[in-house]
Amino acid sequence: MSGLVFRNVSRSFGAVKALTDVSFDVSAGEAHALIGENGAGKSTLLKILAGIVQPESGDLSWQGEPLKFQTPRHALERGIGMVYQEMLSFPNLSVAGNIFAGREITKSGGRLDEKAMRERTAALLAELHVPATPDTPMDRLPAALCQLVQVARALAFDCKVLVLDEPTTSLTDAEVDHLFAVVEQLKRRGLTILFVSHRIPEVFRLCDRITVLRDGKHAGTFNRAEATPDTIVRAMVGREPPARVPRASVDAGRIRLAVTRLSRAPRFRDVSLTVRAGEVVALFGLVGSGRTEVLETIFGITPATAGQVEIDGQRVTIRNARDAAAAGLGFVPEERARQGLFFNLSLVPNIILPKAAKDAVLRINRRNDRREVEHQVATLHIKTASVDRTPDTLSGGNQQKVVAAKWLATSPKVMLLDEPTKGVDVGARFELHALIRQQVDAGMACLMVSSDLPEVLALADRILVMREGRLMGELDGATATDDAVMQMATHEVVA
Fold first, then answer.
1. Right CATH number for 4-237 from 1.10.150.20, 3.10.180.10, 3.40.50.300, 2.40.50.140?
2. Which CATH superfamily is domain 255-490 in?
3. How far apart are alpha carbons 111 and 218 in whole angstroms?
4. pLDDT digits over 72-107, tens only?
5. What is the pLDDT, as a whole number, of residue 32?
6. What sign does the CA torsion over 29, 35, 41, 47 have?
7. What distance in Å separates the CA atoms of residue 316 and residue 257, rounded to the nearest whole number?
8. What is the mean pLDDT of the chain?
C-alpha cells in the first residue's frame, strides 16, 4: 500500500552535500528503519520531513498526495509526528501542558479548555501505559516516560507517520521493552513508523525493512528477513567494520583522581574510588543508580554534601567549569545539546573556550585559536565544511566529537565521560574508542559512565558497579562478563 515516498531528495549546506538524489519508500503501516553513519544524511532527511529545512530538489508524498512543509507546525498538521533523541519538553509545565503546547484546545472566546485537554491526556496516557497523570510536572518523569509523552503529543494531533529518532539511547532494557510494546501496538493500529537507530539489534527486532544512507546517498533498502547485521554494517560504512581496538595490559601509573566518601543526598552516598594514569574505569549502573550524578558532582556542576576530591594528590574545591578545567578535569556530558555546546557560536569558540578559561586568557588570539581548532577537527575526523560553521550544521556524532575536542584541547589529567558514544554510529564508535585509548595510553586517566554494557567491557580496565546510589563492588575489566556486571547492578551483594 502506498505510504511515505521520498523521490530524488537533495540538499546542500554550503559546499557540503548532505543529501544527493535520495529515493526510497515507506509502506503504510510498516515499521521502517533508517540508519547510517553520522554524517550520512539522516538528520537532514528528518529535518526535511519535519518541515525544518526545505529540499533543494526532489519531493515527498504521502499516499500519493504531495507533501510540502514550510514549518514544523505544518508537518504536524499533516500527520507527521516526531520524537527526537534530544527530548524537547517544557520541564516547568505539566504532562498535559507539554502534549498540547502550541496547539491548546480552546473554548469560545479563546479561553483554554483545561478539562478537555486533561481528559484527552488521560486517555493517551492510558493507551500508552504511562504511569502518570495529566497534572504531573514534566520534570518529575524519567527519560523513558518523557519519550512516551512525546509519542502522546504526536498521537494527540492525529499522527499518521511516527518518527522515532534514537529513542532508546538513555533507556534501560525494561524501558526499551515497554517502548517497543507501545510501538508494536501503534503499528497494529495502522500507524507508519520510521525508526532511526544506531543499535542494529533493535532495528532487526522492530522493523520490517531497513533503509541505509551513506555519504548522503541511498545505499540500499533491505527486507529484514533477507538481511544480516553484517550486511547492514557493510552498507553503512562501505567496507568491513574495523576490528575492535584491543585492550593492552594495563600499566597504570600514579593515582590521578581520588574520590573519598563523596555524597550528594539523596542521589548517592559514600562513594570512594580512584583512577590512575593510563587507566579507564567504568562506572556502571542502571538508570537511577546515581552514576551520572557522581560525575556531575566531581566536575562541580552540583555541590557535594560530603566527601572530597583529589587530583594528583592535591585536594581540590571545584565550584564551576573554570575551576574544573584549572584542576585538570574535562567532562563530556550525556546531554550534549543542553550541556555541551553553544549552538549560536562557531566551532572555534566552542572548542577553544575551555582552554582559554583554563589558561586565564583575557584576549583571544584568533590565528592561534583557529590553528588549534583545525588541529582538533582533523585529529577527531570531525566532518564539517569549515570551523566557522555552527554545531547545528553537524550530525549528532560530529557534535559529540566537538564536545570531546573542546576538553581534549585543555590537555586534561582526568577525563569524565558520560555516555561518550550516545547516538553515535558503529564507525564513529570505533574512532572514539580508539581516541579514548590513545589519550589514556599517553597518561590521561578516564572515568566513564555508559549504559552500553558491550562498550564497558570493551574499554574498561576496571568496572565499578552502582546500585541505588551506592557502590556495590568492583570487577576486573579483562575478566568481567555481562552476567557478572548485571548481577551486581541488580541484586544485593552479600559480603
1. 3.40.50.300
2. P-loop containing nucleotide triphosphate hydrolases (3.40.50.300)
3. 48
4. 888 888 889 888 766 567 888 899 999 898 788 888
5. 96
6. positive
7. 10
8. 86
